[in-house]
Structure prediction request, 188 residues.
Amino acid sequence: MAASPVFDIQDVKRRMAGAIASFKHELGTLRTGRASPNLLDPIVVEAYGQTMSVNQVATVSVPEPRLLSVQVWDRAMVQPVEKAIRESSLGLNPQTEGQVIRLRIPELTQDRRKDMVKVAHKYAEGAKVAVRHVRRDGLDVLKVKEKDHSMSEDEHVRAADLVQKETDKHIAEIDQLVMHKEKEIMTV
Prediction:
């Protein structure tokens, strides 16, 4: 007879927190009209025969609220980094001075802001789906444990209630984060 799976509420919490951390990172890559070093995270550069993210070949800093400064470490990588930024979907126009690339962050139009809000909501839905998958996994383990009599029906109900409370808490946190991001994006 196979050993019954182990139910651990701490594992459920940790996995749900991981979904939220991933969601926060995705939100950080959305442009809000202010400069953020995370803005360049999705951009990859052909470097040394492989693809690397910009932060692996340069230091990204924010000297002013609407300006990004990209200090490329290797002089040979300046052109590839500039090209990758120019060809990205961010709509940024790099200006190169030696090994430093400056990126002015333009004002967002109202239509562009609405598009960003839609993307934020899409990210939120993805995070909610991830949290619900964790809930389903936890509830499946509980069903198996009850079925093979290693857990009573009462214990199953109590544990399932804990899992649902964690799910509700994490879904509410996602809603709060997306609401805050929407407000940030729509603020002119």
Summary: The mean pLDDT is 87. The beta strands are 44-47, 50-53, 58-64, 67-72, 94-97, 100-104. DSSP finds four helices and six strands in the chain. The radius of gyration is 22 Å.
